[in-house]
Structures are given as C-alpha cells and as structure tokens.
Design brief:
Enzyme class: transferase
Largest sheet: 8 strands, mixed
EC number: 2.3.1.-
Radius of gyration: 29 Å
Pfam families: 2-oxoacid_dh (PF00198), Biotin_lipoyl (PF00364), E3_binding (PF02817)
Low-confidence stretches: 85-119, 170-210
Strand content: 15-25%
Cofactor: (R)-lipoate
Keywords: Acyltransferase, Lipoyl, Pyruvate, Transferase
C-alpha cells in the first residue's frame, strides 16, 4: 500500500486546504491521474497519484486544512490486501511526497477519516463535526443542505434545537409531536432516537386551511433568510493575507491625478498600426512604474519582519491584481524593467487569462516586488488599496474620465485618472510617496519619455 503525503508544493508552504476530491474509495486510478485539488495561499493545485492501483482511503475531508507531510490518501496496488493497515511498516520514501507503509506524520492534523465498516459517512467540515460533538448531534445521521449534500453548521444547530425540544416533552413549540427525525443525538437526554426531520410548521389561514410553510427558526437569533458562507479556498487565503498586511504594515496613502490625453493618443496610434494585437493602457502604466522604481528603490522592496530589515530588490517583478470568479489573484510579470511594452502586454494577457481559468502555476503567483491594481477597468473612480505584504507599496489605477481642469488659467476638458499609492509608513515617508507618484505621472503624461528610458 502506498500512502500519499501532502508535499511542499510552494514557497514555504506549511499547509493546504482540501478543495475537492476527484476520486472515491474503490476507484481505480492510473499513474499521474489527478486525485484531488488543494488550495494553498497561492493557488489551487491538482495533485496526482504517482502510482496505479485502487484508491483505499481518503484521509481528509473537503474543506479540511492539512499540514505538509500528512497522509491524504492510500493506493492499493496489485498484491495488496484490501483494508490492510500500514501501521508498523517501515518508511520508504519515493518521489512526489509518497511513502510506503509508515506511521502517521508528526504533527499531522486531521479529523477522523471516513468511517469504516457499517454506517453512513456524511460529508462535513472538521469545524462542523466539532460543533456537532459539542451539541450532542450525530453528524453522520444528518441530511446535509450544503453543496453536494454537505452537512452545514445550520443543519447541526437545527438538529440540536429539535432534539432539545423533543427532550423537553416530546412536542414542538407549536404543540405537535415531532415526527421521527433524520438525525440522532449521541447521548444523554438529547438522545431520543428520532428518525425523520421535522417538517416546517404550517401557517394556518383565517379559514382554517394550511398555507405556505413558515420559515424555519433561525439558529442563534439569525434573521430568517440570512445565509452563512464558509470562508474557504481563495477567499480564505485573501482574508488571511489582508489581515496580515493591515496588521503588520502601518498604511498611509498618497493620491494624485494624471492627464491621460497623450497616452490615449499613443495607444490609439499603436493599436491602429497593429489592430490584431490591441493593447490596453495597463502595459504602458506597468512600464512607467517600473522605470520610476529605479529612481525610488525603497518602493521596490520587501520588509523582513523577523530581521527588522528592509530588503531592496534589484529586479522589478510586477504583481498585477486580477479579479477572478473565485476572488483576487496576483500573477507576476518578472523583470518588467527589462521588457518592452509589447512584451509586457503579451505576458499580461496570457497571465490574466490563465488566472481567470485557474491555470496558473504557484511560481507565477509569487515573488512580486511591487503590485498594481487596475481598479479603473471596472469603472472605479477612487479607492485606497491594501499593500501586498511583504511588499511596501501598491499603486491603484482608476478609471479615465473626462473632467474640467484648469490649463493656463482656462477651464478645459481633459481625460484624467486618479492614482492612489498605498505605502508602508515604516519604510516610506509621505514626501517620497508623493514624488514617486509625480514621477510615474510624468511618464504617463509624456509617454514618449519612456523611449529614452528603455533598456
């Protein structure tokens, strides 16, 4: 029997979340067949079985966070006895994080694996199972209402309330005896052996007839109709990253605006010359920022919290905040200071396309030294972005809008865009941030200057 352990698939990865199993116990798999998807703090990655055989056990639940080295699944190969235990065998490392028979990994954290033998195993996250244990509910007896039949916290709380009501007198608050329930308590007074879910109470019309079912009682005073959405996958990674950034880096912001008329004209000329390869404004902005960072090296830096040192990066690797259906990702274009605007445009199109289809590799989502978020692409007029920690600054670019401005004491209409630089005030002072912004704006307002700076 082979045990597949979670390998280190990213920079400094310590744990990953099980997003989705692609197989079930008993399924036959071929070598390199995808078995599951895991979410790291960088990306969702498919893991494959390095050996052919029959899937034995899945040792983690969807939604569970497991540490590197934890056994995720077993594979029975020819000659293996189904159900044989690996306990007591010798460790024999093989490639791709797979080991032969071995004891559990030190520090392995997981909820109990799928139930063996008789009984039904209901899909539920570890936190839901903990809640069920705390409330005295057998989670495996519940019919889940979550995606794919997963048992949710609300399912558990509803079951606990019904069990409690039954234990108080075998009747509901509406005076009707609870029918058999689809859940069972696990002990004590709550363990009343109910067999079927209680139907929602019926509203009674003035004429005495039943009308539409009344809303189910909300758990813990939650208003009816509200929905709780588990923080999972990319959303969870974003949440953790944002908290870390705002907690560690004292944010400050500088805001300025750029006259985009000349850049609009240049882009039009470029696109007219090559209509098949039309460019957006973003590659020009990326190049302008990359050139400006040469003059302001403290903005192209990382903060080493542990060593209390500022690391000035020699190369400019630009992170591009990209909205996807699952949340924000930040693919990285490397060495933008040494690439042409056309090269940046091509690479940007490829990375953002693959980000939206979840086909980026983990290394394409790491290593940025500065980040741009192009909020203007969705029409935002002004916002203040959060730094992509451990970087020390991020630039928000907003929509280009025709506005009245004063030029040579006359009011004229120009197409303008706000730029907002959020920066770590431990590393950068306000005057430096303001001068950097003016430097970038200078290139945007006179983009021909970028030609002089090209490497």
């Amino acid at each position: 029997m082979f045990e597949f352990r979670l390998p280190d698939i990213g920079e400094g990865l310590h744990e990953a979340e099980i997003v989705r199993w692609l197989v079930r116990p008993g399924d036959r798999v071929t070598e390199d067949q995808a078995v599951l998807e895991v979410q790291t703090d960088k990306a969702t990655v498919e893991l494959s079985s390095p050996v052919a055989g029959v899937i034995g056990e899945l040792r983690a639940q969807e939604g569970e966070v497991v540490r590197v080295g934890s056994v995720l699944f077993t594979v029975l190969q020819d000659g293996d006895e189904p159900g044989s235990s690996p306990d007591g065998g010798a460790v024999a490392p093989v490639p791709n994080g797979v080991t032969q028979v071995s004891p559990p990994a030190p520090g392995e954290t997981r909820e109990a694996g799928p139930r063996r033998g008789k009984g039904r195993w209901a899909p539920a996250t570890p936190s839901t199972r903990r809640l069920a244990r705390a409330l005295g509910v057998d989670v495996n007896a519940l019919q889940g209402t979550g995606p794919g039949g997963r048992v949710t916290d609300e399912d558990v709380r509803r079951a606990a309330l019904a069990v409690e009501a039954a234990a108080r007198g075998g009747a509901t608050a509406h005076g009707a005896a609870l029918p058999a329930a689809s859940f069972q308590g696990t002990g004590g007074q709550a363990d009343v052996g109910l067999r079927a879910a209680a139907p929602p109470p019926q509203r009674v019309s003035s004429a005495g007839g039943a009308t539409a079912p009344a809303p189910s009682p909300a758990p813990d005073g939650q208003p009816p109709g509200d929905e709780r959405v588990p923080l999972r996958g990319i959303r969870r990674a974003i949440a953790q990253h944002m908290v870390r950034a705002k907690t560690l880096a004292p944010h400050a912001a500088a805001i300025d605006e750029a006259d985009m008329e000349n850049l609009i004209a240049l882009r039009q000329t470029v696109n007219d010359a090559d209509p098949a390869r039309r460019m957006t404004y973003l590659p020009f902005i990326v190049k302008a920022v990359a050139v400006a960072l040469r003059a302001f090296p403290h903005l192209n830096a990382h903060m080493d919290e542990e060593a209390q040192e500022i690391i000035l990066r020699k190369s400019v690797h630009m992170g591009i905040a990209t909205a996807t259906a699952d949340g924000l990702l930040v693919p990285v274009i490397r060495d933008v200071d040494r690439k042409s605007i056309r090269q940046i445009a091509d690479e940007l199109a490829d990375l953002t396309s693959r980000a939206r289809s979840r086909r980026l590799r983990p290394e394409e989502l790491s290593g940025s030294t500065f980040t741009i978020t192009n909020i203007g692409s969705v029409g935002s007029l002004l916002s203040v972005p959060i730094i992509n920690h451990p970087e020390v600054a991020i630039l928000g670019v907003h929509t280009i809008q025709a506005r009245p401005v004063v030029r040579q004491d006359e009011l004229v209409i120009r197409r303008m865009a706000y730029l907002c630089l959020s920066f770590d005030h431990r590393v950068i002072d306000g005057d430096v941030a303001a001068r950097f912004l003016r430097h970038v704006i200078g290139y945007l307002e006179e983009p021909s200057r970028l030609l002089v700076e090209m490497v």
